[in-house]
Every structure is written in C-alpha cells, then in structure tokens.
Fold each of these.
Amino acid sequence: MSSNRGFTVSIEDVTGPATFTRLPDALAALWDSLRVLPLGWSQYEAYRYFFGPGVVERVEAFLARDGEFGLTFAMAGRTHAVRLVPVRAQG
C-alpha cells in the first residue's frame, strides 16, 4: 500500500467522499457511519462482523486483488454502494 496517499471512502446518498491517510482510520469512519443507519438486523450483523477483528487484512486483500473495495446495502427501498479506494500518488 506504499504507492498511495491515503484512502477515500463514501457511502452513496449517505456521506460524501472523505479521505484518510491510514486504512484503519478510513474503515473506522465507514463503520461509524454504517452502524447508525437503519439497516435492519441481518445487514447490521453482517456489517458488524465484517468490520470486526481482521477487517484491515480483509480489505487489504480486496485492494490487492481488485484495486478498490466495495459493498452494498439496502435501505429505504434502494441499494446504496459503500466504496473505499486508494488515493494514488501523482507522477
């Protein structure tokens, strides 16, 4: 992850993009935003499990494989995207 300058996170129609220098901080911000949403029990528990112990390693694996990380959830009758993307160094 040394080739990036941080991580940008967003939750479609919930939060605008925010950039963090460290991956753990970006993931904590995502979870802080997600956990207060009216997700329903199943979605909440799935996200709580995913953002629990080992989340940094899980997301690092997604980033290494796919170059970005994304999930979705349903709320108020529609699907919303959760995104985390590395901010690449310019040059």
Note: The first strand starts at residue 4 and ends at 11.
Amino acid sequence: MPDLSSYDSWPAVAALALVLLGFQVPSLVSTIRTHRDTKAIRTHTENEHADADYPNLRDELTATRVAAEAAASAAQDAVTIAKTTDTRLTDHITQADAWQTSVEDDLTRLRRPLLAWRR
C-alpha cells in the first residue's frame, strides 16, 4: 500500500482513487454480465414446465424409467406367451398331421377290398 502522506493535494488523492477503481472495473463489469446472464438463464429454465405433468426433471426421469421398465416387462411377457403359443401350435399341427396320416392309411386299407370287388 502506498504511503498516503506523500499525496498532499486533492488531485493526487483523486488520481490514486481513480487508478485503484480502474483496477476494479473489469471485475465489476464481469460481475454485472454474470448476474445478467444468470437472470436470463433462470428465466429461461425456471417455471418453464410449471404446468406440466412432471414439473421436476427428476420426477419425470423417474416416471420415464418406471414406464420403460413396465413396457420391458410387458414385452417379455408377450414374448413368453408367443413362444408358448408357438410350441402349442406346433404340437397341434404335428398331432393333426399324425391323425390325417392315420385316417388316410385307414381309408386306403378299407378301400382295397372294394376295389378288388369291382374287378
């Protein structure tokens, strides 16, 4: 800190004060800009979704995650049902094919005597 006793006139003291204040001007300007930008950001983000279903982003993310898990569970259930249905349908077709072959064999066996009688 400079010795203030060497400044014996008002212009010298005023000049010293201006120099010291001059060093504070960039910091002051920066602070003013920061506050202005902060206000703009706050107005942009605050109350933007006040009337939405989920005004809080954390609540919305939680709800989205829960819905995604429920959808995944429902999809897994649908896959299980589809596999079970496919297995049952394949078994039914196999049994129907076996029954049809059996009926065709029976008809062929029963038809032979009739064909022999016609000759």
Note: The chain is about 80% helix and 0% strand.
Amino acid sequence: MARIAGVNSAELTFKAFWGSATAELTTAFAIGTVVAATLTIGNSSETFIGNFLITSVEVTNNCKTPVEFSCTGESTGAITMPA
C-alpha cells in the first residue's frame, strides 16, 4: 500500500482448506504468527506481496477432510503492489 498516498496498512482475510490435521493448521496460522503472503490477481502475473500478523483463525468444520478454515491478518510493513 506504500504506492497509494495516505495508505500504509492492509488487512488480509481468506477462507481455505487444510489437509486433515487441525493441530498443524492452528500451529501454522496461530494468532500472533507472522506469515508471508503473495496474492495473485486473477490469472495475471500481477501480485500483492507482504507480511501479515495473524489476528484471528477459525476452523469451520474440523470433522471434514480437508478442514475448512478462515483467517485474518494485518500487514506488518509495506505491501508490494503491482506496477
């Protein structure tokens, strides 16, 4: 977000699926963990890249395989945006 005047933070929210081990999921995306994220825009080669501090994680249904979950994070620095 460093290229947009006045904006210096971003929030990331996503839903995804994770193998079948809920314990590994909650360790990889534990609240307070910083994760690197690269978000590709559609089928293009343009991406947003940044590091995000995990602020929430919710397992939707740990009885299914794969496990469905959602996660939210806040940027920890500048976000690299498409040119």
Note: The chain has one domain: 11-80.
Amino acid sequence: MTDSAPTPSIVLTAQQWQIFLESLYERGDKLDLREEGGVYHPRKEKVDAYVFSGHAEALRSEEVDGDIWGTLEDIEETADSEEEAWAKIVAFYLGRGCVLMEVLPEEAGEMPEQWLISEPLARRLGLLATA
C-alpha cells in the first residue's frame, strides 16, 4: 500500500476474518449475523469469502477474483496499472458511503486483502460501531 492510500475503517487479522465469516448466514440475497439479540439462525450454507464477495462493492483479494479492471470500466475510469485502478475504485466507493476493510495476511510478506462494503452493511454485521 502506498503512503497516499486511505486508512481502512476496519482491519481484521486472518483469524478474525474467519471467525467473522463463520458468524454470518445468507438468506436469499441478504447477509446477516447468525446470532443477534438472542435469536440464532442455523447455517444452511457456509458463508465464505466467495459468498461474502457477492455483498461487497469491490474487492482486492488473492482468494477471490475481484475483477479490478471490470470494476474500473463499470465506474467509467481508466488506469495504467492495477495499483492506479484500485486507488480510483477505492476513491469512487469511499465517496459513495462505503467503507474500506482490510484483512491482514497470515504470512508475512503477503499483501493484505481489501474489501469495499457499504456502511449500512458493515454496521449491520457488527464491523462498525452503531451510532
């Protein structure tokens, strides 16, 4: 990450990321917490990074293809490098009420994953403190 990159609003270790994913369930097209307010929702389908990616606005991950160039085209931007493309994508979504989440790698020297998700989703899933 360059010095000019925005600071992520949410930072999770690889272990926290796995625990977080295990705490989720998906019903239809809605992602939510499996246990909330004393109500427990059984897991019918495992929520993994791929399932979570369907609820993200954009992502940069080794595990899940975030299609950075396709996303850049969708926001009608161009770039000369993947770094520049991702910076433009981040700026676009941060300007539209999204938050940047970073998942730190398990191994030193690996790049962290970055996910852009809507602020309401981040709050509903307990990633941001509620106001």
Note: The chain has a mean pLDDT of 89.
